[in-house]
Amino acid sequence: MAGYSSDKLDKLYPIPSHAPSAQSPRRLPGATPESTEALLKTLKDNHFRWHIFFNEKHFHNHATHHLLAIYHLGANGANIEAAYKTHTSYQRKAYESPGPITRDNFHEHLGDEDYYNAYLKFFTDVLLEKGAAATIEEYVFSPKANIEPPKPGKPPMQMANRFLAGLLHPLIHTGYGCEFGLLGQLAEGLAETAVHSPLAPALTPPSLMEYVGAATSDLANAAVSCVASLLPSLVLDQVHRVVQAHPEATKSVHALSLVSRLMHDDYYSYKTIQLPPPVNSEEDTSLERVLHLRGNELAEIAKEWTVDGTNAREVESKIEELFWTNVVIFGIAGWGGREKSKTGKFNGDFFFLHLVTSVLFLPSIVAYLSPTSTSILLRTYLLNTLALYVARGRPPLPVAEFFDNVTATPSPPANSLPPTKPADGTLIADNRTPSPWLAILQSTLEHPDDHLCKLQRSLSHFAELYGTTPAGHFKKLGVELDGAERIDGSLFIRVAGLALERVGWMREGQDRDEWDFDGFFKE
Q1: How far apart are CA 95 and CA 116, in angstroms?
Q2: Disulfide: which of 154, 182, 346, 426 matches 498 by Cβ 3.0-4.6 Å?
Q3: Using one digit for the tens of pLDDT, what is the confidence trace for 131-168?
Protein backbone atom coordinates (compact mmCIF):
# COMPACT_ATOMS: atom_id res chain seq x y z
CA MET A 1 0.00 0.00 0.00
CA ALA A 2 1.23 3.47 -1.01
CA GLY A 3 4.81 2.24 -1.41
CA TYR A 4 4.98 0.64 2.04
CA SER A 5 6.74 -2.70 2.19
CA SER A 6 4.88 -5.59 3.78
CA ASP A 7 7.44 -5.56 6.58
CA LYS A 8 6.76 -1.89 7.32
CA LEU A 9 3.00 -2.46 7.22
CA ASP A 10 3.33 -5.32 9.67
CA LYS A 11 5.23 -3.06 12.05
CA LEU A 12 2.56 -0.38 11.79
CA TYR A 13 -0.37 -2.79 12.07
CA PRO A 14 0.56 -5.97 13.94
CA ILE A 15 -1.99 -8.15 15.67
CA PRO A 16 -3.33 -5.88 18.43
CA SER A 17 -1.63 -6.32 21.76
CA HIS A 18 -3.31 -6.29 25.13
CA ALA A 19 -3.47 -2.96 26.91
CA PRO A 20 -0.33 -1.79 28.74
CA SER A 21 -2.06 -1.14 32.07
CA ALA A 22 -4.39 -3.17 34.28
CA GLN A 23 -6.47 -0.01 34.61
CA SER A 24 -7.03 -0.12 30.83
CA PRO A 25 -9.85 -2.23 29.31
CA ARG A 26 -9.48 -5.99 29.10
CA ARG A 27 -10.64 -7.41 25.80
CA LEU A 28 -13.90 -9.35 25.81
CA PRO A 29 -13.95 -12.86 24.29
CA GLY A 30 -14.59 -12.89 20.57
CA ALA A 31 -11.34 -12.00 18.80
CA THR A 32 -10.50 -14.64 16.20
CA PRO A 33 -8.11 -14.87 13.23
CA GLU A 34 -11.07 -13.93 11.02
CA SER A 35 -12.09 -10.84 13.01
CA THR A 36 -8.45 -9.77 13.41
CA GLU A 37 -7.87 -10.03 9.67
CA ALA A 38 -10.96 -7.89 9.03
CA LEU A 39 -9.82 -5.34 11.60
CA LEU A 40 -6.30 -4.97 10.19
CA LYS A 41 -7.58 -4.83 6.63
CA THR A 42 -9.98 -1.99 7.40
CA LEU A 43 -7.48 -0.10 9.56
CA LYS A 44 -4.89 -0.20 6.76
CA ASP A 45 -7.46 0.89 4.18
CA ASN A 46 -8.48 3.82 6.35
CA HIS A 47 -4.83 4.77 6.94
CA PHE A 48 -4.06 5.23 3.27
CA ARG A 49 -7.43 6.25 1.78
CA TRP A 50 -8.82 8.94 4.05
CA HIS A 51 -7.92 12.27 5.57
CA ILE A 52 -8.21 12.73 9.35
CA PHE A 53 -10.94 15.37 8.80
CA PHE A 54 -13.90 14.32 6.70
CA ASN A 55 -14.95 17.90 5.86
CA GLU A 56 -13.60 21.44 5.83
CA LYS A 57 -15.14 22.10 9.26
CA HIS A 58 -12.57 19.71 10.76
CA PHE A 59 -15.08 17.06 11.78
CA HIS A 60 -13.09 13.98 12.69
CA ASN A 61 -12.72 10.64 10.97
CA HIS A 62 -14.02 8.22 13.62
CA ALA A 63 -13.76 5.04 11.57
CA THR A 64 -10.86 3.46 13.45
CA HIS A 65 -12.44 4.31 16.81
CA HIS A 66 -15.55 2.38 15.81
CA LEU A 67 -13.61 -0.60 14.46
CA LEU A 68 -11.30 -0.98 17.45
CA ALA A 69 -14.11 -0.49 19.96
CA ILE A 70 -16.32 -3.24 18.55
CA TYR A 71 -13.33 -5.54 17.99
CA HIS A 72 -12.61 -5.15 21.70
CA LEU A 73 -16.26 -5.98 22.48
CA GLY A 74 -16.07 -9.22 20.50
CA ALA A 75 -17.42 -8.31 17.06
CA ASN A 76 -16.90 -10.79 14.23
CA GLY A 77 -15.31 -9.95 10.90
CA ALA A 78 -18.56 -9.28 9.05
CA ASN A 79 -19.65 -6.91 11.81
CA ILE A 80 -16.34 -5.01 11.58
CA GLU A 81 -16.60 -4.69 7.79
CA ALA A 82 -20.22 -3.53 8.03
CA ALA A 83 -19.22 -0.90 10.58
CA TYR A 84 -16.45 0.37 8.30
CA LYS A 85 -18.90 0.78 5.43
CA THR A 86 -20.97 3.20 7.51
CA HIS A 87 -18.00 5.59 7.42
CA THR A 88 -16.62 5.30 3.89
CA SER A 89 -19.50 7.06 2.14
CA TYR A 90 -18.70 10.47 3.61
CA GLN A 91 -14.94 10.46 4.20
CA ARG A 92 -12.62 12.86 2.41
CA LYS A 93 -9.90 11.25 0.35
CA ALA A 94 -6.33 11.59 1.51
CA TYR A 95 -4.10 13.81 -0.59
CA GLU A 96 -0.43 14.66 -0.84
CA SER A 97 0.78 17.62 1.18
CA PRO A 98 2.44 20.60 -0.54
CA GLY A 99 5.78 19.49 0.86
CA PRO A 100 7.43 17.18 3.39
CA ILE A 101 7.66 17.70 7.13
CA THR A 102 11.12 17.46 8.65
CA ARG A 103 12.56 18.13 12.08
CA ASP A 104 13.70 21.51 10.82
CA ASN A 105 10.33 22.73 9.48
CA PHE A 106 8.07 20.81 11.89
CA HIS A 107 6.81 24.03 13.50
CA GLU A 108 6.04 25.83 10.24
CA HIS A 109 2.84 24.02 9.28
CA LEU A 110 1.18 23.27 12.60
CA GLY A 111 -2.58 23.73 12.40
CA ASP A 112 -2.61 23.30 8.61
CA GLU A 113 -4.75 20.35 7.53
CA ASP A 114 -3.09 20.30 4.11
CA TYR A 115 0.01 18.96 5.82
CA TYR A 116 -1.74 16.05 7.56
CA ASN A 117 -0.30 13.54 5.11
CA ALA A 118 3.21 14.97 5.55
CA TYR A 119 2.93 14.87 9.35
CA LEU A 120 1.62 11.31 9.09
CA LYS A 121 4.68 10.23 7.13
CA PHE A 122 6.96 12.11 9.51
CA PHE A 123 5.53 10.49 12.63
CA THR A 124 5.50 7.07 10.97
CA ASP A 125 9.25 7.29 10.46
CA VAL A 126 9.94 8.70 13.94
CA LEU A 127 7.82 6.03 15.65
CA LEU A 128 9.56 3.24 13.75
CA GLU A 129 12.93 4.72 14.69
CA LYS A 130 12.35 5.75 18.33
CA GLY A 131 9.24 3.89 19.49
CA ALA A 132 6.07 5.24 21.04
CA ALA A 133 7.30 6.39 24.45
CA ALA A 134 10.17 8.59 23.27
CA THR A 135 8.12 10.00 20.38
CA ILE A 136 5.15 11.04 22.53
CA GLU A 137 7.45 12.57 25.12
CA GLU A 138 9.46 14.57 22.59
CA TYR A 139 6.64 15.76 20.34
CA VAL A 140 3.75 16.25 22.78
CA PHE A 141 5.06 16.87 26.29
CA SER A 142 8.66 18.08 26.09
CA PRO A 143 9.61 21.73 26.77
CA LYS A 144 10.58 22.14 23.13
CA ALA A 145 7.13 20.98 22.03
CA ASN A 146 5.35 23.44 24.32
CA ILE A 147 7.12 26.42 25.82
CA GLU A 148 10.43 26.91 24.00
CA PRO A 149 10.40 28.85 20.72
CA PRO A 150 11.28 26.37 17.95
CA LYS A 151 13.40 29.12 16.37
CA PRO A 152 14.19 32.68 17.39
CA GLY A 153 11.10 34.86 17.04
CA LYS A 154 8.74 31.93 16.49
CA PRO A 155 5.87 31.17 18.91
CA PRO A 156 5.93 28.02 21.07
CA MET A 157 4.29 25.01 19.43
CA GLN A 158 1.80 24.24 22.27
CA MET A 159 1.58 20.57 21.37
CA ALA A 160 0.08 19.45 24.70
CA ASN A 161 -2.64 22.03 24.16
CA ARG A 162 -3.32 20.73 20.64
CA PHE A 163 -3.46 17.20 22.06
CA LEU A 164 -6.59 18.19 24.03
CA ALA A 165 -8.18 20.24 21.24
CA GLY A 166 -10.96 19.17 18.91
CA LEU A 167 -13.13 17.79 21.72
CA LEU A 168 -10.25 15.55 22.79
CA HIS A 169 -10.09 13.66 19.50
CA PRO A 170 -6.28 13.74 19.13
CA LEU A 171 -6.01 12.22 22.62
CA ILE A 172 -8.64 9.61 21.80
CA HIS A 173 -7.04 8.64 18.50
CA THR A 174 -3.59 8.40 20.05
CA GLY A 175 -5.04 6.53 23.00
CA TYR A 176 -6.29 3.76 20.75
CA GLY A 177 -2.78 3.37 19.39
CA CYS A 178 -1.35 3.14 22.90
CA GLU A 179 -3.99 0.68 24.10
CA PHE A 180 -3.80 -1.69 21.13
CA GLY A 181 -0.09 -1.32 20.38
CA LEU A 182 -0.62 0.01 16.84
CA LEU A 183 2.06 2.40 15.58
CA GLY A 184 -0.05 3.23 12.52
CA GLN A 185 -2.87 4.44 14.74
CA LEU A 186 -0.39 6.37 16.88
CA ALA A 187 1.06 8.09 13.82
CA GLU A 188 -2.43 9.19 12.80
CA GLY A 189 -3.18 10.52 16.27
CA LEU A 190 0.06 12.50 16.49
CA ALA A 191 -0.41 13.89 12.98
CA GLU A 192 -3.96 14.85 13.96
CA THR A 193 -2.52 16.66 16.98
CA ALA A 194 -0.15 18.60 14.74
CA VAL A 195 -2.85 19.84 12.35
CA HIS A 196 -5.19 20.99 15.13
CA SER A 197 -5.12 24.59 16.25
CA PRO A 198 -4.52 25.03 19.97
CA LEU A 199 -7.32 25.97 22.34
CA ALA A 200 -7.02 29.01 24.60
CA PRO A 201 -3.64 29.23 26.38
CA ALA A 202 -5.42 28.86 29.73
CA LEU A 203 -5.84 25.14 29.03
CA THR A 204 -2.10 24.67 29.50
CA PRO A 205 -1.24 27.52 31.88
CA PRO A 206 2.37 28.39 32.73
CA SER A 207 1.83 27.07 36.26
CA LEU A 208 1.37 23.59 34.78
CA MET A 209 4.08 23.89 32.15
CA GLU A 210 6.98 25.03 34.31
CA TYR A 211 8.80 21.77 34.09
CA VAL A 212 11.75 22.34 31.75
CA GLY A 213 14.45 20.72 33.84
CA ALA A 214 12.33 17.88 35.15
CA ALA A 215 10.83 17.03 31.78
CA THR A 216 14.23 16.98 30.10
CA SER A 217 15.56 14.47 32.60
CA ASP A 218 12.33 12.51 32.40
CA LEU A 219 12.79 11.84 28.67
CA ALA A 220 15.23 9.09 29.56
CA ASN A 221 12.69 7.60 31.96
CA ALA A 222 9.85 7.34 29.46
CA ALA A 223 10.86 3.96 28.08
CA VAL A 224 11.42 2.66 31.61
CA SER A 225 7.91 3.80 32.55
CA CYS A 226 6.46 1.91 29.58
CA VAL A 227 8.40 -1.27 30.28
CA ALA A 228 7.43 -1.22 33.96
CA SER A 229 3.78 -0.86 33.02
CA LEU A 230 3.97 -4.04 30.99
CA LEU A 231 4.90 -6.18 33.99
CA PRO A 232 1.56 -7.70 35.05
CA SER A 233 2.56 -8.52 38.62
CA LEU A 234 3.65 -4.97 39.32
CA VAL A 235 0.69 -3.35 37.61
CA LEU A 236 -1.87 -5.61 39.24
CA ASP A 237 -0.33 -4.92 42.61
CA GLN A 238 -0.61 -1.19 41.98
CA VAL A 239 -4.27 -1.39 40.96
CA HIS A 240 -5.16 -3.60 43.89
CA ARG A 241 -3.62 -1.08 46.23
CA VAL A 242 -5.60 1.75 44.65
CA VAL A 243 -8.98 0.04 44.65
CA GLN A 244 -9.11 -0.39 48.37
CA ALA A 245 -12.07 -1.54 50.45
CA HIS A 246 -11.39 1.23 52.96
CA PRO A 247 -9.81 4.13 51.09
CA GLU A 248 -8.05 6.90 52.93
CA ALA A 249 -8.93 10.51 52.22
CA THR A 250 -6.09 12.26 50.38
CA LYS A 251 -4.75 15.74 51.00
CA SER A 252 -5.68 16.77 47.46
CA VAL A 253 -9.30 17.77 46.89
CA HIS A 254 -11.39 15.23 44.96
CA ALA A 255 -12.30 16.11 41.35
CA LEU A 256 -16.01 15.74 42.12
CA SER A 257 -15.66 18.33 44.88
CA LEU A 258 -14.28 20.81 42.36
CA VAL A 259 -17.24 20.16 40.07
CA SER A 260 -19.59 20.71 43.00
CA ARG A 261 -17.96 24.04 43.81
CA LEU A 262 -18.43 25.21 40.24
CA MET A 263 -22.06 24.09 40.33
CA HIS A 264 -22.74 26.33 43.33
CA ASP A 265 -20.77 29.39 42.18
CA ASP A 266 -22.76 31.78 40.00
CA TYR A 267 -19.53 33.28 38.70
CA TYR A 268 -19.51 30.26 36.39
CA SER A 269 -23.17 30.51 35.38
CA TYR A 270 -23.80 30.62 31.65
CA LYS A 271 -25.76 33.83 32.25
CA THR A 272 -22.88 35.50 34.07
CA ILE A 273 -20.43 34.42 31.36
CA GLN A 274 -23.01 35.35 28.71
CA LEU A 275 -22.59 32.19 26.74
CA PRO A 276 -24.44 32.36 23.41
CA PRO A 277 -27.11 29.77 22.58
CA PRO A 278 -25.42 26.46 21.80
CA VAL A 279 -24.84 25.48 18.21
CA ASN A 280 -26.60 22.27 17.24
CA SER A 281 -23.44 20.55 16.05
CA GLU A 282 -19.79 19.86 16.84
CA GLU A 283 -19.05 23.48 15.84
CA ASP A 284 -20.09 24.84 19.25
CA THR A 285 -17.43 27.27 20.52
CA SER A 286 -18.62 27.71 24.11
CA LEU A 287 -15.57 25.82 25.45
CA GLU A 288 -13.19 28.30 23.84
CA ARG A 289 -15.27 31.19 25.21
CA VAL A 290 -15.16 29.78 28.73
CA LEU A 291 -11.42 29.23 28.54
CA HIS A 292 -10.90 32.82 27.40
CA LEU A 293 -13.21 34.36 30.02
CA ARG A 294 -12.76 32.00 32.97
CA GLY A 295 -9.68 29.99 32.08
CA ASN A 296 -7.32 31.60 34.57
CA GLU A 297 -9.78 31.19 37.42
CA LEU A 298 -10.43 27.56 36.50
CA ALA A 299 -6.70 26.94 36.41
CA GLU A 300 -6.44 28.31 39.95
CA ILE A 301 -9.22 25.97 41.08
CA ALA A 302 -7.55 23.02 39.36
CA LYS A 303 -4.31 23.73 41.28
CA GLU A 304 -5.94 22.13 44.32
CA TRP A 305 -5.99 18.81 42.46
CA THR A 306 -2.39 17.64 42.54
CA VAL A 307 -0.78 14.58 40.99
CA ASP A 308 2.56 13.06 41.98
CA GLY A 309 3.58 11.39 38.74
CA THR A 310 6.29 9.38 40.50
CA ASN A 311 3.72 7.62 42.71
CA ALA A 312 2.01 4.84 40.74
CA ARG A 313 -0.64 4.38 43.41
CA GLU A 314 -1.56 8.07 43.37
CA VAL A 315 -1.61 8.24 39.57
CA GLU A 316 -4.07 5.37 39.33
CA SER A 317 -6.16 6.84 42.12
CA LYS A 318 -6.33 10.16 40.28
CA ILE A 319 -7.33 8.44 37.04
CA GLU A 320 -10.06 6.61 38.96
CA GLU A 321 -11.33 9.99 40.20
CA LEU A 322 -11.57 11.16 36.61
CA PHE A 323 -13.43 7.99 35.59
CA TRP A 324 -16.11 8.56 38.22
CA THR A 325 -16.28 12.32 37.72
CA ASN A 326 -16.85 12.18 33.98
CA VAL A 327 -19.53 9.49 34.25
CA VAL A 328 -21.33 11.49 36.95
CA ILE A 329 -21.30 14.58 34.74
CA PHE A 330 -22.57 12.75 31.65
CA GLY A 331 -25.03 10.42 33.37
CA ILE A 332 -26.46 12.24 36.37
CA ALA A 333 -26.52 15.67 34.74
CA GLY A 334 -28.08 14.10 31.64
CA TRP A 335 -30.81 12.43 33.68
CA GLY A 336 -31.40 15.62 35.67
CA GLY A 337 -31.81 17.58 32.43
CA ARG A 338 -34.37 15.24 30.88
CA GLU A 339 -37.49 17.32 31.58
CA LYS A 340 -36.02 20.44 29.98
CA SER A 341 -34.57 18.68 26.96
CA LYS A 342 -36.35 18.92 23.64
CA THR A 343 -37.21 15.21 23.71
CA GLY A 344 -38.15 14.89 27.37
CA LYS A 345 -35.70 11.99 27.53
CA PHE A 346 -32.27 11.59 29.08
CA ASN A 347 -30.18 14.50 27.82
CA GLY A 348 -27.34 12.52 26.27
CA ASP A 349 -25.08 15.51 25.74
CA PHE A 350 -22.71 14.88 22.84
CA PHE A 351 -19.94 16.92 24.43
CA PHE A 352 -20.17 15.33 27.88
CA LEU A 353 -20.18 11.95 26.13
CA HIS A 354 -16.62 12.65 24.97
CA LEU A 355 -15.51 13.05 28.57
CA VAL A 356 -16.46 9.41 29.16
CA THR A 357 -15.00 8.05 25.93
CA SER A 358 -11.72 9.95 26.27
CA VAL A 359 -10.97 9.34 29.95
CA LEU A 360 -10.82 5.61 29.21
CA PHE A 361 -7.46 6.10 27.48
CA LEU A 362 -5.60 7.86 30.27
CA PRO A 363 -4.11 4.65 31.75
CA SER A 364 -2.90 3.46 28.34
CA ILE A 365 -1.29 6.80 27.50
CA VAL A 366 0.22 7.25 30.95
CA ALA A 367 1.91 3.84 30.56
CA TYR A 368 4.17 5.46 27.96
CA LEU A 369 4.86 8.70 29.83
CA SER A 370 7.47 9.97 32.25
CA PRO A 371 6.26 11.02 35.71
CA THR A 372 6.37 14.73 34.85
CA SER A 373 4.40 14.27 31.65
CA THR A 374 1.90 12.09 33.50
CA SER A 375 1.23 14.90 35.95
CA ILE A 376 0.86 17.44 33.15
CA LEU A 377 -1.53 15.26 31.17
CA LEU A 378 -3.82 14.47 34.10
CA ARG A 379 -3.96 18.01 35.42
CA THR A 380 -4.63 19.59 32.02
CA TYR A 381 -7.21 16.90 31.34
CA LEU A 382 -9.04 17.78 34.57
CA LEU A 383 -8.94 21.47 33.65
CA ASN A 384 -10.53 20.59 30.29
CA THR A 385 -13.26 18.63 32.11
CA LEU A 386 -14.05 21.54 34.42
CA ALA A 387 -14.13 24.02 31.52
CA LEU A 388 -16.40 21.80 29.46
CA TYR A 389 -18.76 21.35 32.43
CA VAL A 390 -19.11 25.14 32.63
CA ALA A 391 -19.34 25.52 28.86
CA ARG A 392 -22.32 23.19 28.60
CA GLY A 393 -24.32 25.11 31.19
CA ARG A 394 -22.99 23.86 34.55
CA PRO A 395 -25.99 21.53 35.02
CA PRO A 396 -27.21 20.33 38.44
CA LEU A 397 -26.17 16.86 39.63
CA PRO A 398 -29.22 15.41 41.43
CA VAL A 399 -27.38 12.37 42.80
CA ALA A 400 -29.95 11.07 45.29
CA GLU A 401 -32.85 11.40 42.85
CA PHE A 402 -30.84 9.63 40.17
CA PHE A 403 -30.22 6.59 42.36
CA ASP A 404 -33.83 6.60 43.55
CA ASN A 405 -35.28 6.56 40.05
CA VAL A 406 -32.90 5.11 37.45
CA THR A 407 -32.92 1.33 37.21
CA ALA A 408 -29.82 -0.73 37.87
CA THR A 409 -31.27 -3.57 35.78
CA PRO A 410 -32.03 -2.11 32.33
CA SER A 411 -33.44 -4.55 29.81
CA PRO A 412 -34.42 -4.57 26.14
CA PRO A 413 -37.98 -3.66 25.13
CA ALA A 414 -40.35 -6.32 26.44
CA ASN A 415 -41.74 -7.11 22.98
CA SER A 416 -38.24 -7.96 21.72
CA LEU A 417 -37.63 -10.83 24.13
CA PRO A 418 -37.93 -14.41 22.85
CA PRO A 419 -41.54 -15.60 22.98
CA THR A 420 -40.55 -19.19 23.78
CA LYS A 421 -41.32 -20.20 27.33
CA PRO A 422 -38.20 -21.14 29.30
CA ALA A 423 -37.73 -24.85 29.97
CA ASP A 424 -38.76 -26.34 33.27
CA GLY A 425 -35.99 -26.06 35.81
CA THR A 426 -34.70 -22.70 34.54
CA LEU A 427 -33.38 -20.87 37.58
CA ILE A 428 -35.70 -17.88 37.33
CA ALA A 429 -38.16 -18.38 34.50
CA ASP A 430 -39.38 -14.79 34.30
CA ASN A 431 -35.90 -13.25 34.39
CA ARG A 432 -35.30 -12.85 30.66
CA THR A 433 -32.27 -10.56 31.05
CA PRO A 434 -30.16 -12.07 33.84
CA SER A 435 -27.19 -9.88 32.84
CA PRO A 436 -28.11 -6.39 31.64
CA TRP A 437 -24.53 -5.84 30.45
CA LEU A 438 -24.68 -8.76 28.00
CA ALA A 439 -27.93 -7.46 26.54
CA ILE A 440 -26.59 -3.91 26.27
CA LEU A 441 -23.31 -4.92 24.63
CA GLN A 442 -24.99 -7.25 22.13
CA SER A 443 -27.31 -4.44 21.07
CA THR A 444 -24.41 -1.99 20.96
CA LEU A 445 -22.43 -4.18 18.55
CA GLU A 446 -25.21 -3.86 15.96
CA HIS A 447 -25.88 -0.16 16.46
CA PRO A 448 -24.47 2.07 13.69
CA ASP A 449 -23.73 4.99 16.02
CA ASP A 450 -19.95 5.02 16.38
CA HIS A 451 -20.08 6.90 19.68
CA LEU A 452 -22.34 4.39 21.39
CA CYS A 453 -19.84 1.53 21.24
CA LYS A 454 -17.10 3.77 22.63
CA LEU A 455 -19.35 4.91 25.44
CA GLN A 456 -20.55 1.43 26.43
CA ARG A 457 -17.01 0.07 26.22
CA SER A 458 -15.94 2.73 28.73
CA LEU A 459 -18.89 2.17 31.06
CA SER A 460 -18.58 -1.61 31.03
CA HIS A 461 -14.88 -1.35 31.84
CA PHE A 462 -15.51 1.01 34.73
CA ALA A 463 -18.15 -1.41 35.99
CA GLU A 464 -15.62 -4.24 35.84
CA LEU A 465 -13.13 -2.25 37.90
CA TYR A 466 -15.45 -0.52 40.34
CA GLY A 467 -18.85 -2.21 40.14
CA THR A 468 -18.59 -3.50 43.72
CA THR A 469 -18.01 -0.01 45.17
CA PRO A 470 -20.53 0.41 48.02
CA ALA A 471 -22.56 3.49 48.87
CA GLY A 472 -20.64 5.63 51.34
CA HIS A 473 -17.32 5.22 49.52
CA PHE A 474 -17.22 8.85 48.43
CA LYS A 475 -18.26 10.13 51.83
CA LYS A 476 -15.16 8.43 53.25
CA LEU A 477 -13.10 10.21 50.62
CA GLY A 478 -14.47 13.56 51.78
CA VAL A 479 -16.25 14.41 48.52
CA GLU A 480 -18.29 17.60 48.92
CA LEU A 481 -20.97 16.84 46.31
CA ASP A 482 -24.53 16.72 47.69
CA GLY A 483 -25.70 13.11 47.71
CA ALA A 484 -22.18 11.74 47.20
CA GLU A 485 -22.86 9.14 49.89
CA ARG A 486 -25.41 7.53 47.53
CA ILE A 487 -22.99 6.93 44.67
CA ASP A 488 -22.10 3.26 44.26
CA GLY A 489 -20.82 0.89 41.60
CA SER A 490 -24.24 0.57 39.96
CA LEU A 491 -23.69 4.04 38.48
CA PHE A 492 -22.21 2.60 35.30
CA ILE A 493 -24.99 0.17 34.38
CA ARG A 494 -27.62 2.78 35.16
CA VAL A 495 -25.96 5.26 32.77
CA ALA A 496 -25.44 2.56 30.13
CA GLY A 497 -29.15 1.80 30.18
CA LEU A 498 -30.09 5.46 29.82
CA ALA A 499 -27.66 5.90 26.92
CA LEU A 500 -28.98 2.97 24.92
CA GLU A 501 -32.55 4.00 25.58
CA ARG A 502 -31.67 7.47 24.26
CA VAL A 503 -30.32 6.31 20.89
CA GLY A 504 -32.55 3.25 20.55
CA TRP A 505 -32.34 -0.52 21.04
CA MET A 506 -32.13 -0.93 17.24
CA ARG A 507 -31.25 -4.61 17.27
CA GLU A 508 -34.43 -5.15 19.29
CA GLY A 509 -36.63 -3.14 16.93
CA GLN A 510 -36.53 0.45 18.18
CA ASP A 511 -35.86 3.29 15.75
CA ARG A 512 -32.53 5.01 15.80
CA ASP A 513 -32.33 8.26 17.72
CA GLU A 514 -29.54 10.79 18.22
CA TRP A 515 -27.42 12.40 20.92
CA ASP A 516 -28.22 15.86 22.23
CA PHE A 517 -26.50 19.13 21.37
CA ASP A 518 -28.62 21.70 23.21
CA GLY A 519 -26.62 21.71 26.42
CA PHE A 520 -28.18 22.67 29.74
CA PHE A 521 -29.18 26.28 29.32
CA LYS A 522 -32.85 26.21 30.29
CA GLU A 523 -34.07 27.28 33.72
Answers
A1: 9
A2: 346
A3: 999 999 999 999 999 999 999 999 999 999 999 999 99
